[in-house]
Amino acid sequence: MNERDEKIINSALKQLFFCARKNINKIMITLFVFNIIETIITLFCSKLVVVLSLSTPLILTLAMSLLISIGMLTAVMLLYYGLSVMTLRMARKEYVTIGYLFIGFRKWRDVAKYALFFAVLLTVVCALFLAIWFFFTPLSVVLFNKVGVMTGTAFIVLFFLCLLVLSLFPWTFVWYLLANEPEKQKGVFKRNFALLKGRKKLFFKIVFKVMGKRIVTILIVWAVMFFFTQISLKSKSAMLSLFSSFFSFLYMYLLYATQAFAFLLLPIIYDLFLADSVAKQVDVVEIKYALPDTTGVEQ
Predict the structure, then answer these.
(1) 121, 148, 150, 292: which has the fewest C-beta neighbours closer than 10 Å?
(2) Which of 203, 225, 214 has its CA nearest to residue 259?
(3) What is d(CA 115, CA 121) in angstroms, rounded to the nearest whole number?
C-alpha cells in the first residue's frame, strides 16, 4: 500500500469516528423513518397491484405491475437522494434536520430522471435475479433439502445482495455529486466514473477496514441465532426460545447500526476521493482534505 492510500484510509477512519460520535443517533432515526416510509410505499403499491389484478387481464396486470414497481422505486430513490444530502452534510459538519430527507421531492425536476434511472436499474437487477432463480429452481430445491430452509434462504439473499452491489457499485458517487453540485448535472456519470477510476481497490480497502469486523460480528450473531432457533423449534423450550429472541434482536440491531455506519462512510469516501482527485490535478504531493465551497462549515 502506498503512502497516499494509507493517508486516505487513516483519514477515513478518523473522520468516520468523529462523524459517528456526533451523528449516529440522527442517522439511525433517519434510517428508521426512511424504512417506515419505504414500507408504506411498498405496501400501498402492492395493494394497488392486487386490486388491478382482480379487474384487468393478465398481460395488462403485468404491464401495470411493472410501471407501478418502477414508480415505487423512483419515489424511494428520491428519498435516497435526500438521505445522501443529509449524510454528506453530516460528513462536512454542516447543519442537518430530518427535513433534508424529503429534499428530493422538493427538487424533483432536477433529480427525478436520475431516480428513474436507478429505479429501472433496480428493476432489471430484480428481473435478472428472478430469471436466474427460475432457471435454477431444481438446484434451489436441492439446496433447501440439504441445508434447510433458513440456511438456503440466507444463501439466496446473499447472492441477491452480491448481484445488487455489483450492479450499483459503478454508480456509487452519483447522488453525492448531485448533492454537492446540484447545478452541475451535465456529465455527472462521467465525473462519477472519473472519481472511481484507479480507486476501486482503495474503495473496497476502506470499506473492509471499517466494516470488516462488523460484518464478521453480524455473521457470528446470525449463526448463533440460527442455532438457537433450530434447537428451540425441535425442543420447544421456553428458555431456548428466549435466547433465540435475544440473538434475533441483537442481529437486527447490529445490522441496523452497520447500515448507519455504511451511510456515514460513503460521503466521507466521496470527499476524500474528490480531494485526492483535485490534489492530483494540480500536482500536489500531500493530500489536502479540505474541500472547496465549504462556506460555513466548521474547520
Answers:
(1) 292
(2) 214
(3) 10
The rounded Cα 132 to chain-centroid distance in angstroms is 23
C-alpha cell at 228: 438457537
For residue 137 the three cell numbers come to 429452481
Q: How far apart are CA 212 and CA 201, in angstroms?
A: 15
Give residue-wise pLDDT tens across range 103-115. 999 988 889 999 9
Answer yes or no: pTM beyond 0.85: no
User: Shortest CA distance to 120 belongs to which of 77, 170, 165?
Assistant: 77
The fraction of the chain above a pLDDT of 90, given in percent, is 29
What are the grid coordinates assigned to 190, written together?
A: 462521467
- What type of residue is 134? F
pLDDT in tens, 51-78: 777 777 778 778 888 888 899 999 999 9
Q: What is the pLDDT of residue 60?
A: 79
The Cα–Cα gap between 8 and 140 comes to 42
Q: End-to-end distance of the chain based on CA atoms, in angstroms?
A: 29
Burial class (CB in 10 A: 0-12, 13-18, 19+), 80: buried
Query: 143-146 — which CB contacts under 8 Å span 24+ positions?
Result: none
Cα 113 from chain centroid (whole Å): 20
